Amino acid sequence: MLEHLNYGLFYLINATPASPEWSIDIATFFAKDLISIVPLLAAILWLWGPRSQVNSQRQLVIKVAMALAVSVLASFVLGHIFPHDRPFVDHVGYTFLHHAPDDSFPSDHGTVIFTFALAFLFWHRVWSGALLMVVAVAIAWSRIYLGVHWPLDMVGGFLVGLIGCVSAAILWSLFGQALYNGLSHLYRTLFAIPIRKGWVRD
User: Where are the transmembrane segments (predicted)?
Assistant: First the structure.
């Protein structure tokens, strides 16, 4: 039943040789480059921001990192427990993005971006989480559209992201403040010169 749904949704989304070239180009940008918003936004939140908000921003970055660590590990384990070939390995649909023929479930890109979006939804603002969820859906769509993932790979990434965020919330309650204090001290030591020059927040 699920596999039938998986195939049906894939054929509904997957591009074909008749698809416009501009749509392939946009999807390729989403699939390959849009994920860079994760490290970029995390760095911005840690290094800059209003003085009254920088501590909460850095705590958010740490929670996100914890959630990502758990979700990526869970994704790795699930990929080995439930191996699933990519569409092009099964000679299904059309492929417009080069990719290694490794296991597809759950999607690594989907896991990372959905974890990131959910973390902002839970711990930052509803609007920022919703905006990042739009980005996550765009990335998920693009990788199905270009033929390197199944729809259920992305559903798996979303669910693993939920597991990562719930786990991070539990871990934060246990030793989050101590971790924050330790990382803040390390940051102020390593970035002493940029902090003193005012390039980044202390």
Answer: 26-48, 60-82, 130-148, 154-175
Terminal Cα distance for the chain, rounded: 55
Cβ-based neighbour number of residue 180 at 10 Å: 17
List the domain boundaries for the chain: 21-96+104-196
8 A C-beta contact, residue 49 and residue 191: no
| Residue 154 near residue 110, CB atoms below 8 Å | yes
- Rounded to an integer, what is the distance from CA 121 to the centroid of its chain? 13
| pTM score over 0.90 | yes
Pull the structure tokens for residue 86. Answer: 């990519």
Q: Which residues contact 37 (CB under 8 A, 6 or more apart)?
A: 116, 132, 135
Per-residue model confidence as pLDDT tens digits over 133-163: 999 999 999 999 999 999 999 999 999 999 9
* The pLDDT of residue 10: 94
Helices (H), 15-107: 21-32, 37-47, 54-81
- For 50, phi then psi, to 5°, come to -55, 140
CA distances to 105, 115, 117 from 38, in Å = 21, 10, 9
State the Cα angle at 77 between 72 and 82, rounded to 5°: 120
Reading the block at residue 168, the tokens are 């991070």
